[in-house]
């Protein structure tokens, strides 16, 4: 399947720095959610089997014990389906239209914002909540020398409602890079450069695609809905730039893979039995 942006949508994306394509992947939702659940189970069980939190897994625990899966990254080497989706026409065509040449994937992740029904003992957790700071992704990508022609394609696995900590964007902020400072939850635009209480929520039903420029300032509040708010992110760079291979995610794949094989071996020999199942979603 192919989805071409018309001129009006393309100029909206160029002007505002973001665009929502409602429901265009609704038919894929069962498979997308199945993959997200599978990756979540793999991460939690392999962390327990190895007695070491996977470096892919970002999990938080709040006072009172509630645990929230915040993010898993990288993911394409854990799911054939998600790896193939990243190269599919429906995902690539809008990015290709924007760049005027082939997009090259530079990183992928799933932001889960998913509370676990029961805390899982034995995994070390971060102590903050699932919010994301007011930032642009290029504030990170610039460290690897990437150009500014980068676009994020986020697939909504769940409804992005006001109470679910939706993506919040500052329309038009992608035109110039704003200086960031480090915070416990990541880099953040200096408070005097942008109104941190500004921005607009990007509300979208499950199955929608949100495209946004990597320089666009964005954030998200904690998810208070009681439901997961999963976004699958693919980030692309223009092939006009000599993109180095997998520099952002490659080291984590290389570091984590031996632990994941060790987990499979422990399971095969009966030395470890899975204890965690993803909550029904
Ligand atoms: O999914 C979200 O709420 C925001 C994620 C985000 O900004 C990031 O991963 O850089």
Order of strands, widest sheet: 1-11-6-13-4-3-2
Number of strands: 13
Rg (CA only): 18 Å
What fraction of the residues are assigned to beta strands by DSSP? Answer: 15-25%
Bound molecules: 2-oxoglutaric acid
- Regions with little confidence, pLDDT below 50 for 5+ residues: none
- Mean pLDDT comes to 96
Structural category: alpha+beta
Topology:
Blueprint: H1 7-16, E1 18-21, H2 29-50, E2 57-61, E3 67-72, H3 80-85, H4 89-99, E4 103-115, E5 132-135, H5 138-141, E6 150-156, E7 167-169, E8 180-183, E9 186-189, E10 200-201, E11 209-213, E12 218-220, E13 231-238, H6 250-268
Antiparallel strand pairs: 1-11, 2-3, 3-4, 4-13, 5-12, 6-11, 6-13, 7-10, 7-12, 8-9
This protein binds 2-oxoglutaric acid.
């Amino acid at each position: 399947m192919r989805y071409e942006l018309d001129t009006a949508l393309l100029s909206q994306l160029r002007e505002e720095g973001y665009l929502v394509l409602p429901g265009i992947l609704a038919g894929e939702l069962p498979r997308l959610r199945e993959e997200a659940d599978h990756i979540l189970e793999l991460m939690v069980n392999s962390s327990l089997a190895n007695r070491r939190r996977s470096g892919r897994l970002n999990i938080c625990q709040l006072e009172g014990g509630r645990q929230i899966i915040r993010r898993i990254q990288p993911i394409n080497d854990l799911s054939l389906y998600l790896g193939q989706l990243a190269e599919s026409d429906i995902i690539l065509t809008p990015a290709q239209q924007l760049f005027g040449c082939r997009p090259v994937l530079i990183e992928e992740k799933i932001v889960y914002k998913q509370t676990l029904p029961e805390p899982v003992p034995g995994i070390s957790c971060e102590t903050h909540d699932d919010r994301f700071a007011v930032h642009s992704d290029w504030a990170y990508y610039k460290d690897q020398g990437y150009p500014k022609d980068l676009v994020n394609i986020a697939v909504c696995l769940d409804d992005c409602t006001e109470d679910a900590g939706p993506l919040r964007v500052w329309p038009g902020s992608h035109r110039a890079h704003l200086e960031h400072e480090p915070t416990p939850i990541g880099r953040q635009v200096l408070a005097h450069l942008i109104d941190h209480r500004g921005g607009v929520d990007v509300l979208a039903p499950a199955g929608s695609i949100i495209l946004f420029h990597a320089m666009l300032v964005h954030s998200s509040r904690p998810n208070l809905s009681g439901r997961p708010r999963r976004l699958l992110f693919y980030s692309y760079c223009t092939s006009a730039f000599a993109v180095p291979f997998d520099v952002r995610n490659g080291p984590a794949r290389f570091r984590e893979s031996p632990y994941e094989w060790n987990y499979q071996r422990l399971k095969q020999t009966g030395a470890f039995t899975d204890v965690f199942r993803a909550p029904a979603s």
